[in-house]
Amino acid sequence: MRRQLVRLHRWFGVATALFLLVAGLTGAIIAWDHELDAALNPSFFKARTEGPALSGLELARRVEAADPRMQVTYLPLAAEPGHTLQMMVLPRTDPVTREPYKLDFNQIAVDPATGEIQGQRQWGAFSLARINLIPFIYKLHYTLHLPFTGGIDVGVWLMGIVGMIWLFDSAIALCLSFPSLNAWRKSFAFRFGRGGYALTFDLHRSGGVWIWGLLMIVAVTSVSMNLASPVVRPIVSMFSTLTPDPINNPEILRAPKPGDSVLTRERVVQLAQEAGKTQHLKAPPGGIYYAEFLHAYGVGFYETGNDHGDMGLGNPWMYWDAATGKLLGQQIPGKGTAGDVFMQVQFPLHSGRILGLGGRVVISAVGVAVAVLSATGLLIWLKKLNARRRSSRNAQRMHKARVTRDAGRAPARPKAEVAPE
């Protein structure tokens, strides 16, 4: 049985090592995505003009009026003091060509005092330019920048499958790390004095044992981040009812009708303020998102600058039909069924934000550890592979030597006798 587990661990590890190496390093970086992005691109984050800031709704109105080609899809409702207000945008449809206008950006940074656009970029572009670097790394973390193929997000599925293999392989690794009760101390030790292969082996085995619980959490949540709707939610629903919402259950959406109008952002924010009071939410509406393909609005409730949810289970979100204003669903942290709470906790755990700043430090360190475990696993495999190859070559040489030796020692055959005439 142990031999089979060793073989499984070897091939699962080899198959996923490079993916986990990338995921670990990028995860360690994007735990600080906002801070690093702001440090690299101060002109995109710091407002040029001092003075009273306009509301996010007014800024969005001015931006759309100045450039009718684009439509604001997400915006914070207020800017942080001294910072730009960053909006996500999409092209509108050209009434002449019936095709979307061509825009080479999907995110803009707006001066909150004037409404002037002082920066723009294509978030998630395949680019190492400073303005694009952190979004590039962020998207690399969960998609590897692989394209959609046949309507399938190949990168998201691939990294989700890698997460599932990693989860299974982590359980195998724990079993292999404790071959016997008498040798359990070895599985926690690091032979720093030995160096070389011995230390490499200990970093891989003992390092994984020390943080095994954290690795399992990151593995489970990585699957949840990438494959929530097709994999995780169906499994969770077998044990607990999940409350439908328009993001994960589009069947609850009303099909748009010809002539449907779209509610203004101002009206949706008003609905959100009323709903927030009904739910006794402490935070005000902090950001609004319009999903045209869902024909729905989403509103997040958070204080200015806390759009990621820097502590606990994250921010509340509510969703409304874009034409009727009907409440379609809500996600209130800590409320709902056991399954709802399980799904709510996935991103806060994966990002470490459930524990605030300390949690982000831990997750960043775990990301580096995952990269180290992947690299040491590959080094161990390569060393053993080379050893097997040398052993095979030596065996072949010995075999040839024996054949040659035996041939040299063999008695000569007598000459054939010639019959007399």
From TrEMBL:
Residues 403-421 have a biased composition (Basic and acidic residues). This is PepSY-associated TM helix domain-containing protein. Keywords: Membrane, Transmembrane, Transmembrane helix. The keyword Transmembrane helix applies. Residues 392-402 have a biased composition (Basic residues). The chain crosses the membrane at residues 12-32, 154-178, 209-228, 361-382. InterPro entries: PepSY-ass_TM. The keyword Oxidoreductase does not apply. Residues 392-421 are annotated as: Disordered.
